[in-house]
Amino acid sequence: xxxxxxxxxxxxxxxxxxxxxxxxxxxxxxxxxxxxxxxxxxxxxxxxxxxxxxxxxxxxxxxxxxxxxxxxxxxxxxxxxxxxxxxxxxxxxxxxxxxxxxxxxxxxxxxxxxxxxxxxxxxxxxxxxxxxxxxxxxxxxxxxxxxxxxxxxxxxxxxxxxxxxxxxxxxxxxxxxxxxxxxxxxxxxxxxxxxxxxxxxxxxxxxxxxxxxxxxxxxxxxxxxxxxxxxxxxxxxxxxxxxxxxxxxxxxxxxxxxxxxxxxxxxxxxxxxxxxxxxx
Length: 280
Known about the structure:
Layout: H1 2-41, E1 44-51, E2 58-62, E3 65-71, E4 80-82, E5 85-93, E6 103-109, E7 114-120, E8 128-134, E9 137-138, E10 143-149, E11 157-161, E12 165-170, E13 179-181, E14 184-192, E15 197-205, E16 209-216, E17 226-233, E18 235-236, H2 255-279
Parallel strand pairs: 1-7, 9-18, 10-16
Antiparallel strand pairs: 1-4, 2-3, 2-5, 5-6, 7-8, 10-13, 11-12, 11-14, 14-15, 16-17
Helix pairs in contact: 1-2
């Protein structure tokens, strides 16, 4: 009879160990997921576009430290993590150093938000930073598009996204609302009624992405007006930044506790099986 009970006991105790391992895995993953979500909610992101015809190639400093070197006109950075609070931003002609900054401005950054910061202005007097708050939430398997009017001498413009979406009478320094789009080939057009000029650029919209269309340059001077696009991934259904920044490993502070829990649970599980073998 004892021999018949041994397999049953072993199976029960083996099942207990499997259950312990499952809880261990669930606990570990839950800890990482929870802290990653908290880290994302408490992290701010900033990207920068150089849209100032006056500055040319520039160096950008944040809080007294170099942030971007040899930043060329019409360039767009990826998102970078930035602590919340007020940050001192300075822009200088390339190689001139922070002491020769043409623009010094305080940039307030709120927790959990994403920003596009445009360096704008065609003269020393109009040099400025235009800040846009981003919302890169995207519907699953869809794409989103936003247009930014950064041409200082264009007056109002009209933007066309694909065949069916038009944004009328955009003023300088405006950003359009986000437009939901089907994926696939798409053409962006910006018309400048003031000079009867149309700018166009083709783009293939990928699923779960946010495409920004920046109208930059000058219609009556140099550098010439052009459309610049930048695409970042969005996270379906979540109000994330959609940015590429890699979050720090927020589970690290709890690693010792998690490791101790793993050792204890494994010891309990193997102790149960060993006890079963000795008394079978």
